[in-house]
Design a protein that fits this description.
alpha/beta
Amino acid sequence: MQPRISMITLGIDDLERSVEFYEKGLGFPKMESPPEVAFFTLNGTWLGLYGREALAKDAMLSPEGTGFNSFALAHNLSSEAEVDALFAHAVSVGATAVKQPQKVFWGGYSGYLKDPDGHLWEIAYNPFVWIGPEDKD
């Protein structure tokens, strides 16, 4: 077995709104998808968007939830300027700023935002090591 995360699926409330955010706000390339779900290819993994209630039902759990979800997704970029630009752009198309990009205690640079469904994203630059698969040309 090779360790990996093949896909992250987020439970969302409005598929059209969320697709627009991920395509236009974060620049993720959408794949051909069935009408009730959306898939994005992310250089080594997939992101899935699926109705919150349908996803909870599939897992046999309640769709109710409030507050902090106990996790954050991270999108690492190549510079502080890229962090600032993507953060501002994402907020302009529907994200909620949680923590403005800034120097952080570990020596990097990051900010936090929430997507239109409240999922927490860290937009970050790590000057010490590249995190994730290598960028494709």
